[in-house]
Structures are given as structure tokens and as C-alpha cells.
Amino acid sequence: MSDLISPDFVPKSAFQLPRGSQLLFIGPPGVVKTTLALRYLADRIKANEPAVFATTLWSPGQIRQTLSRISEKNVASQLQIADGVSCVTAQHSSEPYSFQNLYDLNTISLLLLQAIADLKNGHLCLDNLTTLMTYSAPHSVIKFLQVLCARVKDRGVTGIYLIEEGVHAKNVVTTLRFSVDGVVEIFDEEEKDQLKHKIRLLHLRGAQVDTRWLIFDETKPLQWAEE
Amino acid sequence: MILDPILQGGLPQGTSIALVGQPGSGKTCFSLQFALDTAKKGLDVLYLSTENTPSSLIQQARSFGLPFPDQPGKLPIHFVDAYSWRIGMQNDPFAFNRINNPGNLNEVNLIMTDQAKILDPGSVVIIDSVSGLSLSAPDEQRIRTFVHSIAQRIINLKKILILVLEDQAHDPELITNLRSLVQGSIYTKVVDGPKGSLSWLLRMYSLIGVQHETKWHQVKIGKNGLFLQGGTSYE
């Protein structure tokens, strides 16, 4: 198995992701951050690599539904979900890993590490840090992410962490940005009355990246914006 | 349904959506029309009002030409009155329930989810407005956790939640944060039209898991209430 990951839907020239990279996806609400992360996980599941999706915002059912819409049917059943929603709705979770609450960051960190403990060449996505900051002070979440990233990386698992743009103080986001290896920015732009989603990999430690904008369309591979 | 030009088949069951716009941009009007459409399909609506008594809401709706009956109990739209406590008023004839302390967000959350529980899937819960609740709430932090919790609960009950937010009445960070805690956003605004007139516009900005148009649509009043006219371009 190669140590560089190049997902099928991303142009080869854009980047190759070193295994164990920790990435921050940043963008305003409603700009397909979750869909992009799911697309990446679906791509990895198809390459027979295990993936864990920790959700604090969408229920496991909704995640699987979105995943089966953008990918093949059997992919959704192979995604492991760490459920951070049932604790909010005061329900029993049918997922193997479920959060007790959203404010005890130590327990969440341990739970996520437990979920990825046996994953060889695995992938972890946490959606999202903004919800955790709804329940805890920003500096606790910063510390949480620093430790989590280091441990996830140590286990050779690739990590993706989602955060909302325009919610947190600038210095909080900047601190989070240097806790990770790379940052993916997602924006939308008006084009002929419709909104278009644009993506770019801003930087990535230990890899060469093409920082030009890519256009995201749910059904198509990513395409360079000016072509 | 008013959203038909944007979404075929309407909002899916188990959805939470923020309705964001400046004061006077037609948020309440849209919410009432949406309630009316839902009631016509035979589904229930739970409508929490913090800025008007239910009677005055209905009066407003009727003055805009929305076909609301002038007698209570004709439609399955259940108003929860979180306004009358302010003026120490007796129960409103159109009120189905009343909240005397909207600053206690846990209680608001429980009252709304408890009542939503017995309704059919696809029923609608409207909170008009979160900004009104936030004025009585002790701090912003509670508003954030309230929105996260009620959104998850209503989704879990397979209902549709509409949260009305006053744009520019809060820090932009708070609005963005609240929008991030729900699954989608609808924006409303008013712009200058031709010859000194005003145009009311509405846009489905985002909605996870659903493909939709993102154009601005013009909100018009017809003989069956509000409808959307699309396809034109607005800045």
C-alpha cells in the first residue's frame, strides 16, 4: 500500500496526501464541507481502507443517506460512525461508538482513539469542532485537537476535522490551523445567480500542493476553476 | 406549497432550517404561508410566537391576503403564545398553549418537543423568533445549546423545524454559529424595485442532502396567498 493517497475525484496534479496527515476543512455553514469529507471517505472505503465518521451535527441515518446518494450503496454500510447526536436527543445509539455528552472533551478524545485503535491505514473525520465549541471554551477545544491530532497521526490514521468559518475569533482559528498539517478552504461564489462551491488546499506539510481553486460538483470529479 | 419552485416535493421529513433576514423582510409572512400550506396537506403546525399575539399574527396574515380563517380551531395550526406574558394579557383566543417564561430555554425546548412528539411525521415546528427568545435568555451560550438541542430533537422526531433569525440584530458570529447548527438556511431580503416600489426576495441558500436552486426568487401575493416567482436576476 502506497504512503501517498490520491483520491479518485481529485485531479492528480492537485496533491497527494501523505498517510497520517491531519487536515482542517474550513468554510462557512452550508458549503458542502460534510459532503466533501464523505466523498473522501467513500473513495477510501472503495480502496478497502477503513473509515470512522464522528458526527455531532447529523444523525448517523442522515450521514449514511448522504453517503449512499453520492456513492455506491454498499459503501454506506462499511462506514463506521461515532455518534455524538444521540446524547443530545437523549436516545440510545445503535452505533458501536457513541458519545456520553458533548462537553467532556477527554472522554470524546478517548472514544475516538478507541474507535480508530484497530484501523490499519484508516481515516477519521470529526464533524465538527464548532459544535464542540458550543459546549466548551475555545481554548479547551484547541488543546483537545492538538492532543487528538498527535495521537491520531501516531497511529498512522489520516484525520479530517471540520470547522465553521465566521463563527470563531480569528486567533482561535489560526491556532487550530497550526495544530494540523494542512488546511482545505471551501467557499461559495455567486455565478449567474447560482452558488458555486470552490475548494482549495492551502498548504500541506511535507507535500507539494497546487493551491489553485477547484470547483466542487456533487456528481463530478473536482475540476480546476480556470480551464 | 410555497417552496415548490425551489424544491420539488418540499422539505424532507426530519429537517431543521434557519430563516434569516432583516426585520420587515417577510420572515413571519413566509412562515405563516408555510404553516398554511402544511395545514392544507392535513399536517399539524406548532407555531411559537415571541413578537406577536396569535390573534395579531392572524390579523396581519389576513391583511396580506393569506387565506386564514378568522375563527380559531379551523386549521391544525397550534399557536404557542410567548408574547402575552410581557403585557400581562389574558389567554389569547387563538393560542393553543402559552409560555410565561421564554427566558427558560430548557422549558421552551421541552414544551415544544413534547408537543411535537404526538404529531405526525412531516409536521412543522416554527420558532418565530429565536431572536425574541434570546432577548429573554440569560446569555448567548444558552441560545447556541438550545438551538443545537431542539434541532436534533425535532429531526429525530421526523418533523420539520423552522428557526426564524433576525439578521444584523446579533453579532454575525452568532448568526453563523446558529446556521451551522441546523441543516440549511433560507434568506429573505427587501430591495428597491422599479418606481419607488419594494420587492421581497427569498433564497434557499443551502440545505444538506437536497439538491435545490440557489437563485433569489421574488415573493408575490396572489389570491391564494404568497407565491414565489423565480428565474429573474437580482443583486
Fold and architecture overview:
The complex is a heterodimer of chains A (227) and B (235). Chain A is of the alpha/beta class and 227 residues long. Chain A has one domain (21-185): 3-Layer(aba) Sandwich (Rossmann fold), CATH 3.40.50. Helices cover 34% and strands 26% of the residues of chain A. Chain A is built from seven helices and twelve strands. In chain A, the strands form two sheets. A ten-stranded mixed sheet of chain A has the order 6-5-4-7-8-3-9-10-11-12, sandwiched between helices. Chain A is globular and about 45 Å long. With 235 residues, chain B is an alpha/beta fold. Chain B is built from six helices and ten strands. The longest helix of chain B is centred in the middle third of the chain and has 17 residues, at 140-156. The relative contact order of chain B is 0.21. The mean pLDDT of chain B is 90. The A-B interface holds A 28-31, 34-35, 57-59, 62, 65-66, 69, 85, 88-89, 91, 128, 130-131, 134-135, 164-168, 193-195, 218 and B 14, 141, 144-145, 148-149, 152-153, 155-156, 172-173, 176-177, 179-181, 183-185, 205-209, 211, 213-216, 233-234.
Order of helices and strands of chain A: EEEHEHHEEHEHHEHEEEE
Tally of structural domains of chain B: 1
Number of distinct beta strands of chain A: 12
The number of distinct β-strands of chain B equals: 10
Query: Can you tell me the overall shape of chain A?
Result: globular
Which regions of chain B are unreliable across 5 or more consecutive residues at pLDDT < 50? none
Mean pLDDT of chain B comes to 90
Average pLDDT across residues of chain A? 91
CATH architecture of chain A: 3-Layer(aba) Sandwich
Straight-line N-to-C gap of chain B: 26 Å
Q: For the CA atoms, what is the radius of gyration of chain A?
A: 17 Å
How would you describe this structure in keywords?
heterodimer; A: 227 residues; alpha/beta; Rossmann fold; ten-stranded mixed sheet; two-stranded antiparallel ribbon; globular; B: 235 residues; 6 helices
